[in-house]
Amino acid sequence: MSLRGGAYRRYAEVYDRVWKAAPHERFVDLYLDAAKLAGVRVRRVVDAACGTGTAAIELAQRGYQVTAFDLSSAMVSCALAKCRAAGRSDVGLLVGDLRAVPLADGCADLVAVLNASLNYLLDPRELVEALSNLRRLLGGRGAVVFEPLSARFLYDGYEPNRHLVDGDFRLDASYEVQGDLLVEQIRWRIDGIEATECYRQRYYDDAQLKSLLTAAGLTVADHLPMFPAIPAEPARGRTLWIAVP
User: Which of 79, 129, 190, 216 is the most buried (most CB within 10 A)?
Assistant: First the structure.
């Protein structure tokens, strides 16, 4: 079963604390570079599965028209608070599902899907449905740029990212591969309160992804490795896929 409306519940409360050191500005750079590789002139961006809105805010600060959505209402609430704090009332934020995107046809030049979010869709039919919805947002032109779960992360992982201690906050994450599924168990403690959440992602290899994109009416235009553009060990093996109608 894939994620439903309960995705990233309490984890949303600590998400930015976990990922505060991530090179978010460089992620945005690469997504825009990927669009250029596809020959897309970007003015309107949809940030799909936007999380707490860090990329959406960065894009808005660069002058792009941004709409962002996430399945998790808790994550969207965090994103709204961050937009208010940053004075970004121009970012459109809403709760929405990749499989039933609540946006109009042709509303974007670039649809960005960060951090292997599509891999939370465990049924290939759901992934085709999601990709078809994202293609619809382009209205026949533009690009969908996404990062799939990498084989390197699936089989090798990156141990330093699995443990974090920051003052009174401690997080430990464990991963188990079950066939083509990656099962992630996240445990954290803050202010003496402990919490645990579990998530599953499905690994799709390159041939599967290409086939599913074709079924959704998309064509692979190019790939953009994230390393060494992001010269950090966790970026090794991570690649952006650039798909066009």
Answer: 79
